[in-house]
Write a structure and sequence with these properties.
The structure is a homodimer of 428-residue chains. By secondary structure, chain A is an alpha/beta fold. Chain A contains 12 helices and 26 strands. Chains A, B: Belongs to the NADH dehydrogenase family.
Amino acid sequence: MNTNAANSETQGVPRVVIVGAGFGGLSAAKALGNKEVQVTVLDRENHHLFQPLLYQVATAGLSPANIAQPVRAILRSKENIEILMADVTGFDVEKKLVLAGERSFPYDHLIVATGARHSYFGHPEWEQYAPGLKTLDDALGIRRRLLMAFEKAEAEKDPVERERLMTFVIVGAGPTGVEMAGAISEIARETMLRDFHHIDPSEARVILLDAADRVLQAFDPKLSEQAQGQLRNLKVDVRLKVSVQDVNESGVATANGFIHARTVIWAAGNAASPLMKSLPGTLDRAGRIQITSELNLPDHPEIYVIGDTANCAGKDGKPLPGVSPVAMQQGKWVAKNILARIKGEAAKPFSYWDRGSMATIGRNRAVADLHFVKFSGLPAWLTWVFVHLIFLMNMSSRVSVFLIWVWSYFTRAQGARLITSVGQAKKG
Amino acid sequence: MNTNAANSETQGVPRVVIVGAGFGGLSAAKALGNKEVQVTVLDRENHHLFQPLLYQVATAGLSPANIAQPVRAILRSKENIEILMADVTGFDVEKKLVLAGERSFPYDHLIVATGARHSYFGHPEWEQYAPGLKTLDDALGIRRRLLMAFEKAEAEKDPVERERLMTFVIVGAGPTGVEMAGAISEIARETMLRDFHHIDPSEARVILLDAADRVLQAFDPKLSEQAQGQLRNLKVDVRLKVSVQDVNESGVATANGFIHARTVIWAAGNAASPLMKSLPGTLDRAGRIQITSELNLPDHPEIYVIGDTANCAGKDGKPLPGVSPVAMQQGKWVAKNILARIKGEAAKPFSYWDRGSMATIGRNRAVADLHFVKFSGLPAWLTWVFVHLIFLMNMSSRVSVFLIWVWSYFTRAQGARLITSVGQAKKG
């Protein structure tokens, strides 16, 4: 095992290692930039991903480069931060080391922000038939499946098989599931409408399943109802109180019967990164580790865990939701607490400022809950576009996303409708 | 074996099958659009690729969606053209069938435009160490290798290994090799300059090898000399009269010694698609099939072969070069000949109108040979940009490429610097 040389260059300056360059890790890194600490950011990928728009890559509206940016480019101006690609495999909390295969990275303060993957409720074998949407490679794989389903249907003569190819099931009616269902229905009914000779893409069936009794469970029931109405307008077949019993290459088995479909997308359930198991602490059912109100581990105040991997109690005692504003506010807060403790001051308890939540359901449709006001339809959609543009602008030169959106809003073109081999190579 | 149903729908109308949706196949399809023929376009991919800009995807300047477009979208307005994804495996010229695995497609007139792949001069085992650049997946794979080389160098402590990681060898100094060498050198010296902590990307060595005594052999010697000067300004190490003896994971063996390099890119030599072997005719050394001046096979006038797969004599008796203008003009001509023969008229001999050639060597640098005038530097570069923009505009909504170029020209940002798994999954 070799200890990374970089960290031993500056003796005496406290070393902070951040694992994960998602919303949480990146906001911590920014807040520690050009401060009296030496920071190492480790990530498996070289890019930060704007996950809320990942469904647009999966549905061919945007290219990977429109929603992702090299971590190096984002943190370029921070002289005290080094960025290394590394697949972190565990921690040695006694020796204060982050382990990545044969490499190890010593820390004085550790920030773990490794996010979550999909959870298949104890059925990992479902993943090959029903991929989930967390990374750029996931999105490109799903895009390939969606587009190939139409291509295969065009070449298929058996009407039964053709119908199965043109049936798309989305499991889970949270924001991702609702966004995917709306976008797929729109592609079929608008973008692809005149592209084929033997099939009518508008006959595609998009089925959205959830075990709950309404879509967007985290939202106000009134907004759930409005979202369901908007999905119905987009011809999405919403089926509630339906629990999935099996997923295989023919489709989805539910208590109400078998749904034949060649394309199934998983948008139900998250599980925290399995790295949590190598940290000392208590895990909840979703695999998240219990943290203190100062965002660190009870027995290891030098280890902070934030974002989707952390079980952090909110004001009501319930765990905070796994959304980007929580991760970003926690990242900033952890940076403050680390700098305070270096100065000998006490760490302060975190409290989350919830500005509300939004979900979009295709062009012109969305729901928004800003607490003081709840609304839906075009005003909600414009708010959604505005908020996401602000975010993307902050990521720097993302002007082109805006232009692509404006362009495709008026032309209804879907610029990124390319099938590349990534999905095939990875998921077979 | 099942014969495709689509083709039997309209009896009596002549059936044209086009294999390949590159420059040649697409220009034939456009010219046959809404004419009294029924056309089927077969391609392995769902997109047409603007290959002259592929090196920009490989060097992270553009995204795949900027230089490629779904074939369906391009030919949408042609009511008589169906497009099917199919991996053509051979031909039954007696029964007049195109074979694709278990499927077959009957034709009255056949246009074969399957292009070329790289040729490793009888050493296919070199490909894994020195990938070539023909498809989007090739480009994403090379991009991954380039970016990963810098990432690995940043984490490497051994100075010898670090130098090998930062050495890039391009084999072949034709237009693609020259463009790649210039672009890699520019990325290292400009885009990435401030991105790393432990390495100085401007110390990257870019070595361009060729067995010939000058770069851009197809150009006027004066332009070759100017291109060499421009490459030197970009700090590209041009080594001529060097023939490659072996390529392995450590680098490239030449008669003048071994060059240690972790990244080698192949831009030397083309071989026509191996499908030519299943057509009746004479193949040349590059695997191209001999065609008549009417662009068809001597013994099978109903089979036309165009573009990089065809050996078509020019005015000087030498075979026409494998460039897009040849393929496009031939595609249009074949369409005319087919329509003429359907009317009972004779096919006419093709002649190529050579408007000249250009190659670009990074920002502001290029060489252009328009026959009546030869020039280089900024004027040549602006001509290059102008010509390529016209092409892209024709491909329809490619406005965003122009905006991305303008943006990155002034900011020197490289928007698409993302590492996705495609290259890894495919080439290991």
